[in-house]
Write a structure and sequence with these properties.
Length: 953
């Protein structure tokens, strides 16, 4: 399988996708291949990954089964039906997605209301482990089974078989689900979504894709008779469109036999429907369009389209795609460099290409800008595109992209043996939909090296010229409101830019990495092992603490985190704070090397650096591989000791946040994400998002003045987890963090700990959103306490929260159809003594808000007054227990769980006792939590209502 590329990952986010796909190809050693009818490898010169049992049943259904022991004892199932919104008739728009919902609403052998409880008893949580999605040309059902026991896997396969042809599609259940889907339509109807649909309409005029958004039409969702969804089901859920994928700690031969036996009798209920006409890509030259999205971002996009290439996957085809994307990656890099300059023309910009729903191949440049500076963004991306088209990419630029991409492939190949089963299953399903051969990471690397051998700038530049000679360019300006003069103004600015000749680019020499020597290595003054957890704890003479956890979970993966000081608890709480500017720390680079030069210097390394401000620490972290661990530690040490705080970068991050304010105000979810944390911390500025005036008043020197002393003086804790040897980590840390000057001794600090949950609300707090008049939201929260001071209480509270949410789903979603997905959490602080809370949140109609408050009170009263049943308790506990077991087989669990463990032994006890703690929870424990904390007189409530009764469109 070809890897999803990291380059240009964001530029098509309006298509509801998160990454480009770059296919790597070349020559491979000859090997004997057994033809697999029905699979892409049967008509390709590319080999499929060995160890996967590919097959096709006589009825046409395909399957792929693979033994994979990461995580151990678990199984991932994906059932892909090659039908989606593109296959709907005009009167069925939205019913492919509606049918996906109905798959959970009863079948021949599973009565309505039993599927989710059945899975919960097996340890699956609805959402994370049990899910489905509908796209333009596919519907995919997913189960991640926590156990590989035969009866568990059999249940999973049975449910997929029920989905294939046995859904009852009861009229009453269909009617009850209408409200859920209408609620989901509102949830997804964001400014970003509307901007993407508007762009798609301009990009593919006259084609089917812009007319078939998967969410469909609300009038059809409200009024369609159940027979229409039954017709869609019988016509489109058929074995020749189905692919079943099973990956996990299984006997692959036994699973194949089960699949053949279980699905072999499935037959299509109707003759095959006609293949929908996707339309023809219109041949068009230069065009200009606008998309007005109130509350949306300001974005300039220039696109070129080629007809979709439906030829089989092949070495030659992948190589051609790769050469194109290497060239566009150079352009992407140049745009990134522009964004890093003082007074940049845009906040961010990306370039890339991809196939779009078998309707076109699209290459595009997109830039986000200040609403008042779209003209500068337009000019910059137009002229940068014409510069590379006219003068081409330099060989050194191409070599840099090749080096960086090779490093990514090497890391993937090195970790192939411990890929997670859900990841393999998901990408197998994806490659099936794209009709691509599932090649192995090792083959990807070999193909890449063969393809890149001798690649010249001349070939890349010829490819780029071909890309930009396609249909187009199409310039689209997305704005919150039409500029003065309308589209004529946009056309004038574009014509003016294109009339300006471009000059050849200026290239700078590469810079060597300047942070390889931090002085004499630090001395270890204390070292001890926590044998039962496989953890080693070290303290250096300068006070730096190191915690090391070697694992075998993921070959070639190492996670590194540097926690400094106490994070938010070190910050003042008497004034607004520029915490929002945290991304500027990483993007500013270092005093001795700027961000762009740093990227060049580290192009051959797999390293990362993310900075964030947490409740209990300022955090630098990155993911790397064993060969690059020394460089990863050098990078984080440099940032911890010598950050740059460049003012121009601060201003760019500031502008990005200013641009986001209208989008946050446009939906209930945006308002909640902006305001809830501050409100639940009693308006403490350390958790409160600033308003526009406060953000504009903040200067770069304010940000540096706030953070520099705290990062320079805070105590340092390093945690390293993954494919490592303890002695190597100690030696490398001694050479980096251990070599830094000593910092002031940490004192037991009480300052900053006065964090309070807000007082109960006699009337709900009100906030308003500027979006649709039929959309509202409500929150109920209650204080509980912190996590570590009472571990049994924390565990019981978590289970109680799960039961509460299950009941909300059963009543407010399933029975009433009043919301798409009730949200909730039990958030007990591990950093602030005495602070923590539980909350529930729904998006619904304004008329249902008060009813939601009443329902919360009713559920809380029932939990106080009556014991939960043994079955309900099991359905809440089992998914939580299995999630812990699964998480404990990941490096991320230990990276998070070991924070502060050297100075607070309760954190180790939490790890040791977590599974047993949940297993021991009783119905009486639930009732005690409800009686103590879930009382209406302690509840804090908030409602988010439409601001003026009119929808923002």
């Amino acid at each position: 399988m070809s890897r999803k590329a990291l380059i240009a990952a964001a530029f098509l986010r309006f298509f509801m996708m998160t990454a480009l796909t770059v296919f790597v190809a070349g020559a491979l050693p000859a090997r004997a291949e057994v033809p697999t009818p029905g699979w892409p490898q049967a008509t390709s010169d590319l080999p499929a990954e060995s160890g996967i049992r590919f097959g096709t049943l006589p009825n046409g259904m395909r399957f792929a089964v693979m033994h994979n022991a990461t995580p151990s004892g678990q199984v991932a199932i994906r059932f892909r039906i090659a039908t989606g919104s593109l296959q709907e008739n005009d009167d069925q728009q939205g019913l492919a997605h509606f049918l996906e919902h109905m798959a959970f609403k009863g079948s021949t052998h599973v009565p309505e209301g039993e599927m989710i409880p059945t899975l919960q008893r097996l340890g699956l949580a609805f959402g994370p482990d049990t899910n489905a999605s509908t796209g333009y040309n596919e519907t995919v059902y997913a189960l991640d089974l926590p156990e590989a026991k035969p009866d568990t896997v059999s249940t999973g396969l049975m449910l997929m078989r029920e989905t294939a042809s046995e859904l009852t599609l009861d009229a009453g259940a269909f009617d009850r689900e209408r409200g859920v889907i209408l609620s989901e339509e509102k949830l997804r109807d964001t400014p970003q979504y509307r901007g993407g649909i508007g762009f798609m309409n301009l990009l593919l005029p006259g084609q089917r894709v812009p007319l078939r958004s998967p969410i469909g039409k609300t009038d059809i969702i409200r009024n369609a008779p159940v027979d229409l969804v039954r017709d869609y089901y019988r016509s489109n859920y058929r074995p020749d469109r189905a692919t079943l994928i099973v990956v996990g700690d299984i006997d692959a031969a036994a699973i194949e036999a089960d699949i053949r036996n279980r699905f072999g009798d499935w037959t299509a209920a109707t003759p095959a429907p006609a293949v929908p006409d996707l339309g023809v890509l219109e041949k068009q030259g230069q065009r200009v369009g606008t998309v007005v999205v109130p509350g949306g971002a300001t974005r300039v996009q220039i696109a070129w389209t080629h007809p979709y290439d439906a030829s089989p996957d092949s070495i030659a085809k992948r190589r051609a795609d790769l050469v194109e994307n290497i060239g566009l990656a150079v352009l992407n890099r140049r745009l990134s460099f522009l964004a890093q300059q003082p007074n940049p023309p845009f906040v961010s910009a990306q370039a890339g290409s991809q196939d779009l729903y078998k309707s076109a191949h699209v290459a595009m440049i997109a830039a986000d800008s200040d609403p008042d500076k779209w003209q500068a963004a337009l000019v910059a991306i137009d002229q940068e595109q014409r510069r590379i088209a006219e003068f081409g990419a330099e060989q050194s630029e191409i070599d840099r992209e090749i080096t960086e991409y090779r490093s990514m492939l090497q890391a993937a190949a090195g970790g192939a043996a411990t890929r997670a089963s859900p990841d393999i299953a998901a990408t197998l399903a994806w490659s099936t939909g794209e009709n691509l051969v599932f090649t192995s990471p090792a083959d990807d690397l070999s193909l890449f090296d063969a393809a890149m051998k001798g690649l010249t700038a001349d070939e890349v530049n010829r490819t780029l010229q071909s890309v930009f000679a396609a249909n187009g360019p199409l310039l689209v300006l997305q704005v919150p409101q039409m500029p003065d003069g309308g589209i004529a103004t946009v056309e004038q600015v574009y014509a003016g830019s294109r009339a300006v000749p471009v000059a050849a680019p200026e290239h700078t020499a590469s810079t060597a990495w300047p942070y390889s020597d931090f002085g004499p290595p630090g001395a270890v003054v204390e070292q001890h092992a926590v044998d039962d957890l496989g953890v080693t704890m070290v303290r250096f003479a300068n006070g730096v603490r190191l915690t090391v956890k070697p694992t075998t979970f993921r070959t070639n993966e190492v996670l590194v985190r540097a926690n400094i000081g106490r994070g938010r608890l070190d910050l003042p709480h008497d004034r607004p704070l520029p915490i929002w500017a945290a991304p500027a720390v990483s993007l500013s680079g270092l005093k001795a090397i700027n961000y762009d030069d740093m990227q060049k210097a580290l192009a051959g390394n797999v390293v990362g650096n993310e900075f964030s401000i947490q409740d209990g620490a300022f955090r630098f972290e990155g993911a790397t591989r064993p060969d690059d661990l020394a460089m990863q530690l050098q990078l984080l040490t440099a940032y911890a000791s010598d950050p740059a705080y460049r003012p121009d970068v601060f201003k760019r991050v500031q502008q990005a946040y200013l641009n986001s304010l209208s989008q946050l105000q446009a939906t209930p979810g945006g308002v909640v994400s902006r305001d809830l944390a501050g409100l639940l911390h009693s308006d403490d500025p350390r958790w409160t998002f600033p308003d526009r005036a406060q953000m504009l008043d903040t200067k770069p020197e304010d940000f540096e003045g706030l953070l520099r002393p705290l990062l320079s003086n805070g105590q340092i804790e390093i945690i390293v987890v993954g494919d490592i040897k303890v002695d190597d980590v100690i030696r490398m840390t001694a050479q980096t963090f251990g070599a830094l000057p000593s910092r002031p001794n940490a004192q037991e600090q009480a300052s900053g700990l006065d964090v309070r949950f807000p007082a109960p609300t006699p009337q709900p707090v009100e906030r308003f959103q500027d979006g649709r008049s039929d959309n509202a939201a409500a929150v109920v929260a209650a204080p509980i306490g912190d996590f570590l001071s009472d571990l049994p209480r924390a565990t019981a509270a978590n289970v109680t929260g799960a039961i509460f949410q299950n009941r909300l789903v059963d009543q407010f979603r399933v029975a009433e159809g009043a919301t798409y997905s009730p949200q909730g959490d039990v958030d007990l602080s591990r950093s602030i003594p005495g602070y923590g809370f539980t909350y529930v949140y729904v998006e619904t109609t304004p008329a249902k808000v008060d009813h939601f408050f009443d329902l919360v009170d009713k559920i809380a009263a029932d939990l106080r007054d009556s014991d939960v049943s043994a079955d309900e308790l099991t359905r809440a506990k089992a998914p939580m227990i299995e999630e812990i077991k699964r998480s404990q087989q990941t490096n991320g669990y230990w990276l998070e769980g070991l924070h502060g463990a050297q100075t607070d032994p309760r954190r180790l006890e939490r790890i040791r006792s977590s599974v047993n703690g949940y297993q021991s929870i009783t119905a009486q424990d639930i009732r005690t939590i409800a009686t103590t904390y879930l009382k209406p007189e302690t509840f804090w409530r908030m409602k988010i209502l439409p601001s003026d009764g009119s929808a923002v469109r």
